[in-house]
TrEMBL record:
Cofactor(s) in the UniProt record: a divalent metal cation
Pyruvate carboxyltransferase domain: residues covered: 63-364
Pfam families (UniProt xref): HCS_D2, HMGL-like, LeuA_dimer
Name of this protein: 2-isopropylmalate synthase
Keyword Nucleotide-binding belongs to the record: no
Source species of the chain: Sesamum angolense
UniProt superkingdom: Eukaryota
Length: 672
């Protein structure tokens, strides 16, 4: 194992614009300190990422990062992502340096199975020094486990993650099983997963973390009712998963071949001291625990997921399950960026030297990619990646920052791949060129080039011609609308509306299909947006329900760009099985649009959502979805160009105030 100590008078982390090559990526542990006056002295103590062994980590200080954005994160309402979007995110996660990617729940739907299979083949077989483990989730039954194995087996390092509920209330009311039956099921299913040829099996006792104290009135009126759930009287009631029972089931799955034991706080109920003690108790009382990795999975229902995760790591957990931006069911999950940066900032001093293999330079791009593809906006005050994370408005704070940036910053923007605002001194206007636009986008955390940059430049010039000042928020709205769009099924060509205080609003919309054929539809509605949406529906001919519509002006002033987000659900919408409840739910699809005209912005967002839904349906209708996907998305010869593979709509500015003629109150469609 190579080690080194270096002292540098330059910042250790390179600027975000520095090209990143996976084969030469630094897989090192590093601690750095800035001189209070010069801000330039760094000290770096480095160790290479330990060799991956499923049930053992050679360096006891190393913490594996298990990202479940593509599985648990996608369970957020409206966060449905296409297979192409999942592949892009998986590649970015590999670039980020995560150890394990939970790519999905293969048994939940054909689309999930195809996506996990594709990620296993592509990302799980990349030609790079670091190739992440590709994991598939399954319930404790043979059908789920077989599906998971069929999907992940193509990866160099495949893993099956299986789970079963272990709290008394879950066993009695959801599973309708006795504790002995649950133990037998867990043991036999872990053994079955190993028998398929999978050497890396993770087991989760669902709802292991929630304590009973204080829950009686919320869940049951009498704690004795909980006691009656367990038929074995020797188990004492100390929590939702009784400790002795929990130790026993963990011991049995270890004997059956489990390599990682994940301890979830399924409903985010524990406090950090409780969760840390739970991990410590498991380490002290579970036979065979030294032969496996202990993992944490903390939900954020009380806003404590990051704190609980760090408490678990301090108590001995060496795998931490997280998501980008903390997305997930209900209030979300522990946030990758928060957990990783906490370990980077405080791991040496307060957490016994714990460290990860994450290349933090790629955090901001991962955050923006997930934000755009999921449609879940990052709140401005979100730690690490929020828009205000490095903003200082207070006069006292600004004075301190001007004198020394370390006065009010514990993390530099450069640490996560974000150039400090206006560091380049570039102010964009209608005379700015492509190089200036690219430099500004790098400053904002977007590394785009090639055709993506060319298309964005066209949009930028169109807006710059109508606005005196182009703000950062304007550029972010444009890149969201231009780069992070689903594969094109329908493309907006033109829209014209007539509205006023008297009579119904009318709209004429022109769309072009994937075959290039132009379609025009006219409709009326209670407003210009309603009329335009009805015209789009006449062309697309797919009945949908508009679940959510929101619009924001991204800047101040009458010339502000309008950013629109919509959420739709088809009448015959695609369904999937939710983990861990097993409930069948209808998927919803989000879309975003941006323009200086609110109607155009609204139609762009609606067409974007329809494209995502239609693309999803077409994948499912293919005779062999995974083969089509695999043939379409071959690995890039140059790993450094994979971010350039985003598909998007090409928007044409054809919005002319031509009056409509011969239009009656009936909706009509035309084909050209």
């Amino acid at each position: 194992m190579a080690s080194s100590i270096c002292i540098s008078r330059q910042p250790i982390v390179p600027p975000a614009a520095t090209p990143f090559h996976p084969k030469s990526a630094p897989l090192f542990r590093s601690f750095y300190f800035r001189n209070a006056s010069s801000g330039a002295v760094g000290i770096c103590c480095s160790l290479r990422r330990p060799e991956y062994i499923p049930n053992h980590i050679p360096d006891p200080k190393y913490v594996r990062i298990f990202d479940t954005t593509l599985r648990d994160g996608e369970q957020s309402p409206g966060a449905t992502m296409t297979t192409k979007e999942k592949l892009d995110i998986a590649r970015q996660l590999a670039r980020l340096g995560v150890d394990i990617i939970e790519a999905g729940f293969p048994a939940s739907s054909d689309a999930d199975f195809a996506a996990v299979t594709l990620i296993a083949r592509e990302v799980g077989n990349a030609d790079a020094d670091h190739v992440p483990v590709i994991c598939g989730l399954s319930r404790c039954n043979k059908t789920d486990i077989e599906k998971a194995w069929e999907a992940v087996k193509y990866a160099k390092k495949p893993r099956i993650h299986t789970f079963i509920a272990t709290s008394e209330i879950h066993m009695k009311y959801k599973l309708k099983m006795t504790p002995e039956q649950v133990i037998d099921k867990a043991r036999s299913m872990v053994a079955y997963a190993r028998s398929l040829g999978c050497d890396d099996v993770e087991f989760s006792p669902e709802d292991a973390g929630r304590e009973t104290g204080g829950m009686e009135n919320n869940v049951v009126n009498d704690v004795n009712l909980i006691r009656k759930t367990c038929e074995t009287p020797t188990y004492r009631v100390t929590g939702r998963s009784e400790r002795e029972f929990l130790y026993r089931i963990l011991e049995e799955v270890i004997k059956a071949g489990a390599t990682t034991l994940n301890i979830p706080d399924t409903v985010g109920y524990t406090l950090p001291n409780e969760f840390g003690q739970l991990i410590a108790d498991i380490k002290a009382n579970t036979r065979g625990i030294d032969n496996v990795i202990i993992s944490t999975h903390c939900q954020n229902d009380l806003g404590l997921s990051t704190a609980n995760t760090l408490a678990g790591a301090h108590a001995g957990a060496r795998q931490l399950e997280v998501t980008i931006n903390g997305i997930g069911e209900r209030a979300g999950n522990a946030s990758l960026e928060e957990v990783v940066m906490a370990l980077k900032c405080r791991g040496e001093q307060l957490l016994d030297g714990l460290y990860t293999g994450i290349n933090t330079q790629h955090i901001i791009m991962a955050s923006k990619m997930v934000e755009e593809y999921s449609g879940l906006r990052v709140q401005p005050h979100k730690a690490i990646v929020g828009a205000n994370a490095f903003a200082h408005e207070s006069g006292i704070h600004q004075d301190g920052m001007l004198k020394n940036k370390n006065t009010y910053e514990i993390i530099a923007p450069e640490d996560i791949g974000l150039l400090r605002s206006n560091e380049s001194g570039i102010v964009l206007g209608k005379l700015s060129g492509r190089h200036a636009l690219k430099a500004k986008m790098l400053e904002l955390g977007y590394d785009i080039d090639g055709k993506e940059l060319d298309d964005l430049f066209v949009r930028f010039k169109a807006v710059a011609g109508n606005k005196k000042i182009i703000t950062d928020d304007d550029l972010i709205a444009l890149v969201s609308d231009e780069v992070f769009q689903p594969q094109v099924v329908w493309k907006l060509e033109d829209v014209q509306v007539t509205c006023g205080t008297l009579g119904l609003s009318t709209a004429t919309v022109k769309l072009s299909g994937a075959d290039g054929k132009k379609h025009i539809a006219c409709s009326v509605g209670t407003g210009p947006v309603d009329a335009a949406y009805k015209a789009v529906d006449l062309i697309v001919k797919i009945p949908v329900t508009l679940v959510e519509y929101s619009m924001n002006a991204v800047t101040e002033g009458i010339d502000a760009i309008a950013s629109t987000r919509v959420l739709i659900r088809g009448e015959d919408s695609i369904t999937s099985t939710q983990a861990p409840t097993g409930e069948t739910v209808k998927r919803t699809f989000s879309g975003t649009g941006a323009a200086m005209d609110i109607v155009i912005s609204s139609v762009r967002a609606y067409v974007s959502a329809l494209n995502k839904m239609l693309g999803f349906q077409r994948r499912l209708e293919a005779e062999d979805p995974k083969e089509i996907l695999i043939s379409k998305f071959r690995p890039h010869e140059d790993d450094d160009t994979f971010l350039k593979s985003f598909s998007r709509c090409q928007h044409l500015y054809l919005f002319r105030p031509t009056p409509l003629t011969k239009l009656d109150t009936r909706s009509q469609t035309l084909e050209q």
